Amino acid sequence: MIPNTSVLSMRTTFSIKLCRFGDFLLLWSVCLSIMAGNTIAAGLETMPEQQNRFYNDTKHGWFWYENPSTEHEETKRPPDLSVNKPNIASNLDSYSIEELWNMYPDDFQELLNVLQKKAVQTPSEQNILEYLTMQDIARRKALAYTNATMYVTQKYGELFNVNHVYPTTGPGVTARVSMQQDEISQTINRAGNDHALLFFVSPGCSFCEKQAGILEYFVDKYGWQIKTVDISRNINSASRFNITITPTLLLIKKGQDNYMTVASGVIAMSELERKLYRAIRLLQGNTRGDTFLMYDFQKGSAFDPASILDKGKQPWKNAE
Fold first, then answer.
1. Residue 43 covered by a domain
2. In terms of residue numbers, what domain contains 140?
3. 286 and 191 share a domain?
4. Distance, CA of 299 to chain centre
5. Which of 19, 25, 125, 251 could lock onto 279 through a cystine, CB 3.0 to 4.6 A?
């Protein structure tokens, strides 16, 4: 119903009830209602009829125990399996084994789906036999692809096989780790003359104390110069390098404005060496973003993303 305009005159109503619990007073409810009667009534009177139904016709529907109307519902029927694309039949009588074997994968998948639905809907001996036959052909095609793939990867091992630079056998793993560690150590040792680490710390930082102990061992091993920067006293340095976390290790190179973050937070000695090795190579121009994790001994291998472009090979043109 549309509210009476005389009742909807503008007024403010406060309703406050107090309840006593022990020595405390609990404000139970405060209700503030401001009603602009004339404005609302005028708006309702000019509202279109279809919008006014919300106020006049509300007690209908599921929550009022009224069954939903079926006037506009569409009746859904199961798909007609006999209706298919012109080139796809609904049974195997139209195909030979050779045709099924050489069928394009999309058409094969479509036929397989049709036969599967037929077998589920009507599980007769014939329908199930046709579906299982299609499954067996699919299995054999997958087996043929697997065998051929193993042949190609073995024949063209230089292109697709990474075992020669990333072996997984026990002796191979030992050799690979040794080569990586040698390369890391040699790179860090050579860079000690023209590179340095900035060690950003803050007062009361327990993590900084732990990192400082690790850096002492690092200096004993490599003899690097490390400069400690207290960000509470060197605000300009912290702002210049955008340092907000301590500890933070930053790599700089003499004669360059470029720098590289090595670590934010406490970092172990082994990880420090790996990350510092990569940062050094980046500042020296010996690596890029797309080869950041690659070692020198992996250049030109399958671990080198752009090596296939450098070689300019097109092995598929000489394939048998």
1. yes
2. 92-148
3. yes
4. 29
5. 251
pLDDT tops 50 at residue 20: no
CATH of residue 261: 3.40.30.10
- Return the SS3 of 49: helix
Sheet holding 195-201, edge to edge: 226-230, 195-201, 248-253, 259-264
**Tens digit of pLDDT for each residue in 90-138?**
789 989 999 999 999 999 999 999 999 999 999 999 999 999 999 999 9
Residue 248 placed within a domain: yes
For the chain, how many structural domains are there in total? Answer: 3
Could you tell me the end-to-end alpha-carbon distance of the chain, in angstroms, rounded to an integer?
86
Give the Cα separation of 228 and 238 in Å (integer).
12
Distance CA 103, CA 286 (A): 50
**Taking the CB of residue 320, how many other CB atoms lie within 10 A of it?**
3
pLDDT at 12: 40
Shared domain check, 207 and 264: yes
Handedness of CA 286, 289, 294, 300 (dihedral sign): negative
Enter the DSSP assignment of 141. H
> What distance in Å separates the CA atoms of residue 85 and residue 113, rounded to the nearest whole number?
13
What is the secondary structure of 100-136 as a DSSP string? HHTS-HHHHHHHHHHHHHHHHHS--HHHHHHHHHHHH
The pLDDT tens digits for 245-290 are: 999 999 999 888 889 999 999 999 999 999 999 999 999 999 999 9
* Residue 292's pLDDT band (cuts 50, 70, 90): very high
Best mean pLDDT range from 31-35, 51-55, 70-74, 238-242: 238-242
Looking at the fold, whether 60 and 111 belong to one and the same domain comes out as no
CA Rg value for the chain: 39
pTM of the model: 0.60
